[in-house]
Amino acid sequence: MLSRYMGAAVAARTGDEMSGPALLVTGLAVTGSPLLASWLLAGLTVSAAVGGPLLGVLLDRARRPGRLLACCLSGYAAGLLLVLSGLGRVPEAALIGVAVATGLLGPALAGGWTAQLPLVAGPERLGRVTALDAMTYNVAGLAGPAAVGVLAAVGGGTIAVPACAALLLAALPVAWTLPPRLDTSSTGSSAGRASPRDGRSVRAELVAGFAAITRNPSLRRATAGSMVSCAGLAMLVVAAPVLGLRLTGESGHGALLLTVTAACGLAMNALLATRAPARAGNEARTAHDPACAENEARTARDSVRWWDGVLVWGTAVLGAGMVLAAAAESFWIAVIAAAVAGAGEGPQLTALFSVRHREAPDRLRSQVFTTAASLKITSYALGSAMAGPLASYSPGAALLAGAALQAVAVVVLIPRR
Predict the structure, then answer these.
(1) Is 88 left (phi over 0), alpha (psi -120 to 50) or beta?
(2) Contact at 8 Å (CB) between 98 and 83?
(3) pLDDT score recorded for residue 287
(4) Is residue 272 within 8 Å of residue 350, measured between CB atoms?
(5) Does the pLDDT at position 411 exceed 90?
(6) Among the residues of 249-289, which ranges form H helices?
(7) Whole-prediction pTM value?
């Protein structure tokens, strides 16, 4: 089941990474309007902040969350195809509205999938499997935009959206057959899953989900730090094409820099998957064996320190790569800087997922992941908006501003003990 999950996650997340560029390219190809194309992309991303928390509540309430994920995949694919079919035929405002409605489902393709990882990987493997799961984001980040570019060049601008929808639908069968969540609410355990039978309203669940993030020091620190870091990462993405143009005369070389960043992130996560501590121990034996219980506690403390450390140093390395890129006077120095940034960004993402898996209450796990994903998408959008004017003035200024945000994120992420 785990291998099928990973394959479906790659397909769904590649489709997700393709969706924005695909709408941008298709809107421009069909209508010739850069304004409409940019508004379609904005509409697809702006609604994630609203959709994420609500999707999390619904996933946490579902006995079979995979089936709700399958519905989200279908709805997202259908929304993209609806926009495609309406281009040049229906009013632009209606198409933007469809893009906004489709974007509500976007967090399910990221945080919603990751939140279900414990259903297919037991606690004894979760640490290392989380690194593999983070690798699917790196693969999608590499393959998605590249696939849109190739398809647009070979088959024209309108073929990218159907290909994106096909990838999303390819993940549907695996999502539909994900294992059910065990219902422990009848046992009275505090780890039990919330359900409609508990009598709690959706509003109460939303409040509980945000409280789980804000009241837990580790989750609060990881969420706030990752938001600041993500805003800084957006500055790297926006500045890379301008930097490539300044150093080589070709903005396309900036896309190559982003590819190097994603590839190095993938490589570092592959290494991390072999080094990451896995949760060890047998809980049944621990209950009757004090020595085993002490060893289990020591292992848990070591794992917490390890992942917290990776989160901090990954963010610091990402910032160092951006500083090096800002100072680059040749393209090859910029390539090295992009590799350094990727060496930090990949492990940072894995560590972030590990902290969420470790700290999120089981009954609120999906909401924690989708809400955090929504907040990161929003901070990325804000970072992109700030990066545009800075990169137009100087790519180095945008990169240094992004590095400064990484430094702030490091301060936020350092554990207070």
Answers:
(1) left
(2) yes
(3) 46
(4) yes
(5) yes
(6) 252-275, 283-286
(7) 0.72
